[in-house]
Specification:
Elements lengths: L6 E8 L16 E8 L6 E5 L4 E8 L5 E9 L4 E9 L6 E6 L2 E6 L4 E7 L8 E7 L12 E2 L7 E7 L5 E19 L4 E2 L3 E2 L7 E6 L5 E6 L6 E6 L6 E3 L6 E6 L5 E6 L11 E6 L6 E5 L7 E2 L7 E6 L5 E8 L3 E10 L6 E5 L5 E6 L5 E6 L6 E4 L10 E3 L5 E8 L2 E8 L4 E8 L7 E2 L5 E17 L2
Antiparallel strand pairs: 1-2, 2-3, 4-5, 5-6, 6-7, 8-9, 9-10, 10-11, 12-13, 13-14, 13-15, 13-37, 16-17, 17-18, 18-19, 20-21, 21-22, 22-23, 24-25, 25-26, 26-27, 28-29, 29-30, 30-31, 32-33, 33-34, 34-35, 36-37
Length: 465
Amino acid sequence: MSPDGSLVAFTANPGNLASHYSTSWYYGFGHREIWLMGRNGEQARKVCETDENSAFWRIQWSPDGQRLAYLKFHETPEKLEIAIESRDLKGGPPTTILSGEGFEDFRWLPDGTMIYSLDEPDPNAWMCNFWETRIKARTGEPAEKPRRLTNWAGFCESGFSATSDGKELAFRKSNRESNVYVADLEANGTHISSPRRLVLTESWDHPTAWTRDSTSVVFFSDRKGHGSIFKQSLENDTPELIETGSENAIIPRMSPDGAWILYLVRPKEGGSSVLPRLMRVPISGGPSEFVLTANLVDTHRCARSPATVCAIAERSAGRTQLVFTAFDPVKGRGRVLTRLDADPSADYVWDLSPDGTRIALRDRSQRQRIDVISLRGHPPQALRLKGWSMGEYGLDWTADGKGLLVSSPLPGGVALLKVDLKGNAHLLWEQKGGSVTWGVPSPDGRHIAMPGNTQNSNIWTIQNF
């Protein structure tokens, strides 16, 4: 409601952004239109609208009631762009106050100060800090450079609410962690035993592989302040560090013969490197070595011995094709496996079957369809999930190659499903309060590793900021 209580501003026409670039609380929210009406609903009029790749959120009034401010999301194939914009109620183009990729929330205070929460540029931790800037009342433009207010770590702030004099701010303080859980697969892989937490430290841990003998889970973690790779036996309580140096090592996969861990090094924020590097390190320990560099679609994948193929996916020029290329863990790039027509705006995830003969492929925006592509010249198969919808994360073949493991969003949680190649789904795990999971089956098909994400939130206040 406007400061004088005469007008109400609201958003309408829900958006459907599905960006995997954002891990923030606003994921999946937003609307495509902003409207005004009288306090009793009279004289409703549309102020502005945006396209299908954009959305509005967190609409607010300026202190004098002459402008509106809001978060605007715009999704491109490369990233999710976020801006704080303002608009004059009399019309005209919007004014960009701030823009970037990590705004969590903001509040326009009565004295003209705008306070906002901004993600820290750390890919291995979710943390934010308060910033402020003063806004020109007439134009809605910043009147000064932003100033950092806090230097906190380990949590993010959102859901701002200020007192009428702007001297006290309430906010939601949230922290997240991801743990590795393991369970035994039962009933031909359609049920699991009660999951148990494998890694007992409080950190951000993601399982992505098993050792060849199915006795240890391989995962990456932020516990050393950057992405690091570990393996942990099912019989031990302590993980073993796989030394990869101080670089941001993520997403470890096993080579087909189990001799190498293949992992990615993402470019550092503001660094000179443009493309991710694929590296290898011996499972027994030793120096890391370069394999290749590529602008990857999703991540690298490997089949399992006796198959020998590993593969990456890349976009063609113009983004109209997906090009799948084989690589050798020691020799690097090999031959092109297949080329597929692609939607230039789609965000794809995929996996290579254990025998190296098929690719499972999904556009994240498609909630029920998975395409199974043969590398042996057989016709492709379109699999449609029955009775469930798929979440953003998770697409892994089962150990026997007869099904797929996918996640599904639930009210207040997330589920892990086993799906056969006819689209029939079996619920394996329901995590209450979780937001992200996937399944990594052991090579022998007896066990499964899963990440379990949790978020804890409390309401806090600050004064005299």
